[in-house]
Predict the 3D structure of the following.
Amino acid sequence: MNKIDPRGPRFGAAITSILALTSFALGYSGEKQLAALLTALLALLFAWNVLSPATHPYALFFKGVIRPRLGAPKELEDPRPPRFAQQVGLGFALLGLAGFALDMQLVLVVASAFIFLAAWLNSVFDFCLGCQVYLLLKRAGLFGKGDRPASA
């Protein structure tokens, strides 16, 4: 399995937190359409990261511009927990878009707030909430080999 530089997801989380905070602020102020547009962008970025993390714009920018200036990381990490965190983020973005489609502004605002909080925790404190959930679920035996849900 290819391990990843943990600073890459933190860099992406910083950008995601800015987008999510902006979506939250717009949704809270009544600019539902703009908030939904940003949430749709977040959903696209989450889906892209889940489906093809090596071609994601954040990853390419980090790899080509930022990482060469940082030096080697102290350690590399398993890519599965951050990928799971991206899937959770995608779920929240889709929930926010469903709230917009159903004219439930509060759902859009709360979904954006959760995305912001998780991304901010990762970018500022190096605490990946989705990664922690992944590890708890793995310890509980809900993921088997290859990280598919364990068969009953």
Q: What stands out?
A: The chain has one domain: 7-147. Residues 7-28 form the longest helix (22 residues). The chain has a mean pLDDT of 93.
